Structure formats: C-alpha cells, structure tokens
Amino acid sequence: MRVMTLFGSTEKVFTTNSNLNLEDITLKKLIFISIIGIILLPSCQKKRREHVTVWDGQDTALSSSEYPVSIIWFKESARNLWTPYKGFNTADEIKNIINLIDRPEVNEPAPGLRTRNKLSLIYYLGEPAFLRAVEVYFDVNDGIFIGSRGKSQNLGQMLLTKEESGLSRYRFHTPPYDEAFIKRAEESEQYLQSELRKLKAEKEAKKQEETTN
Amino acid sequence: MGWSLPYTVYAKLGVFSATRQTFPNAPLLPDNWDERGFDLCSLGMNSSGNKKIVFVDGCLSAKFDDMAMAYGTYSDWSLGYHDQIYIGWRETVFTAPPGSPLDWILFSTNGVKLFWERMGLGDDVWQALYYTDSHGSFGIKRTLWGLNGSMNLGEPYHESDDIIWVYGEGIHNKLEP
User: Fold this and answer.
1) Is the pLDDT of residue B128 over 90?
2) At what angle do helices B125-135 and A179-212 cross, to 10 degrees?
C-alpha cells in the first residue's frame, strides 16, 4: 500500500517491501507529532470568549476591568425587541455610569434582576478585533436608578436627562431607510396619538362624572 | 382522476410586503424570494386609499410597519382623510383553530372574536379595541394588551407593552359608515 503524504519518505511505513529502519521512522514520527502539536497548541490555549454576558452584580465590579467604549440604553418595546434609546460615548459619562452601577448610593442587592431596560456596555478588545457586550438590567422609578447592586438617584438623573439618540425611529422600518416615508409614518403616528389622547381624556371625564353622580 | 386531501391541493406561496419587483433598492431576500415571492405592492394598494380597515390576524404581523405600508396605510389619501387603519400583532401568540378544545385557554382567538363582535354591533375601531380592554377577561387583556393587562394605545412604540398594535389614522372607522 502506498500513501502519499507531505513527508515523502513516510510512505516507507506503509510499503511492505521496503527495508524498515525503526529508529528513522520513530524520529520522523516524533518530528511530525511535534509540528502538529506546535500548530495546535495556541488554539488549545485560546479560551472561548463569550460575546454577550449578563452582569448580575454579584461577581467582580465593572470598574475592575477596562472601561467600555460605548454604553447604549435599550428598551424592550415588544418581547425580545430591544430598541436603542440613548447612547453614552464620552469618557466622563462612561466612567460615571460604571462607578454608579458598581457603587450606588443605596446598597440594595437584587441579583438576577430582569427588566425591560438594559444598558449594553460595549467593549472593544483590540487586536485581534473582538467586540464584547456586557448587559446590565435596570429600572428607573421616580427618577431613581434601580440596578442589581442598589439604587442611585444620580444615575437615574443622568440617564433621564440624556437626550435620545433618535435611532428608535428606524427600528421598525425596513432598510434602506426612506426618510420621506419615515416622516410620513411619524406624522401618522403623531396624529393617532393625539386622537387617542383626546379619546382617553373623554373616557376619563365620563368615568369621573359617573362616579360623582 | 384521483382525489387528494383538501390541504394537499394548495401550494405554499410566499407573500411579502415588498420585494425587488416593486422596490429595486429593497433588501435582498434569501432563497430567490425576490423573484418567486408574491409582492403585495404589485397590487398598487400601497398608494391607494381603498383599504379602510385591515386586520392581519397572524403572529408578528405588526412588529414592523411594512405590511401596513403595503396595504396603503400611509397613502396620500390617508394623509388627507385619516381613514385608513392597519391592525396586527407585535408578537408571537398562541392560537388554535376555532372550536379546538384549547380555544378556552388561548385568549387571542377570543379577543379577536370580541373585537369583531363589537365592530359588528356598530362600534368604531377605537371603541371595539377599548371594549376588549374594559370588558375582556383577564386572559384576553393579558394576551392583547401585554403584561400590565391594560390597553396603552397612543404610547410610543418603544414604551408600550401592548401586543395588538395599530398603524394609520382611521381609529374612528366603522364597518358600515
């Protein structure tokens, strides 16, 4: 039997009529295995890295690693439909947010918190290009941030006073975005909302009238 | 001549809100659907004012507004008369065929039934939707109006938890004006 391999002489191993030199074969085998081993070694050492993780506030503090390059506040509009709502990109904003999530004014742990608001902390880990996101669930109640480590009025204010990114307007349209169409859809939504507000107010007024009578 | 079960004589056909047949710049659909799919916009409804109340009673039919657009909800006619409306579901909901023993726990069918019953009695779209909220069972309210069990129509898309969603302006439309 003849088998062609990268090492031409290896065919000796499978050739019945050749004069076998066991030492020679063992050495070549050893070299071959070593080369394969060297090639495979780095991939064995490479740890599998998760792209998205949820931070539950229990383990290490967020400030114990590098700062993210961006923080995005997502709101869940329908189930599993997360809409980008506000973005934080300056060093000051990012540092303050991270520190306040780690050490809120009121220490009230709530591990495993799941809400319809989350901050996605986007980390860029350099070469080889690798992006990672850490998700931090939270709520804002009466202007107070409620996270898995506690409550913070300062962070609540910071999040609420930030202007919207405006990206939510593209969320339920189909790319490539036609601005004229989106404007028309927004006008339509505004009209509907104002009509519905009127109708609701009428209903409320009627209800109140009924209760007072 | 042979015979076949009724469902086997139907061929499945992909129907799309829009394809490259009518919008050459539309995103490319997989599996050659741009060519073999049926494009609703090819009917011209997207720029017509003749569809007044459209209810696509299928999961995720109102997650995005492309279907509403295909039925003309944003037509120039609607801009002037405000009398076109599209209703659908923003999420996946459990459903069963009418009469199924599961019907009583799958509130989506009952909720939709209640809506159309009210429309049949002369309610407009707003009144009929409001009725499902004010008179529907707990299950209907949760299935149609989300976790808080209450209709939040009028709130922005990303702040509402309503499952039934409405596009367009014809909130006062009735079956027989």
Assistant:
1) yes
2) 50
Three-class secondary structure of residue B47 per DSSP:
helix
Among A79, A184, A193, whose Cβ lies nearest the Cβ of B91?
Answer: A79
* B57 CB-near residues (< 8 Å, 6+ apart): B88, B89, B112
Name every chain B residue with its beta carbon within 8 A of the beta carbon of A83: 157-158
Q: What is the pLDDT of residues B80-121, one digit of tens each?
A: 899 999 999 998 887 777 677 776 667 888 899 999 999 999
Place A89 in a pLDDT band, splitting at 50, 70 and 90: very high
**Are B154 and A197 within 8 A, CB to CB?**
yes
Could you say which of B63, B160, B171 has the minimum Cβ distance to residue A192? B171
Are A77 and B158 in contact (CB < 8 Å)?
yes
- Cis, bond preceding A176 (omega within 30 deg of 0): yes
Measure the CA–CA gap between A122 and A70, rounded to whole angstroms.
Answer: 5
Residue for token pair 């799309």: B16
Partner residues linked to B130 by β-bridges: none
- The distance between the two most distant Cα atoms of chain B, rounded to a whole number of Å, is 58
Contacts of A6 (CB under 8 A, 6+ apart): none
Q: Do A199 and B171 touch (CB under 8 A)?
A: yes
Note the pLDDT tens digit of each residue in A147-179: 999 999 999 999 999 999 999 888 777 777 889
Q: How far is A179 from chain B (nearest CA, A)?
A: 14
Distance from CA of B98 to the nearest CA of A (A): 26
Sign of CA dihedral A9, A12, A17, A23: positive
- Report the SS3 class of residue A135: strand
Kindly indicate whether the ipTM for this predicted assembly is greater than 0.95, answering yes or no: no
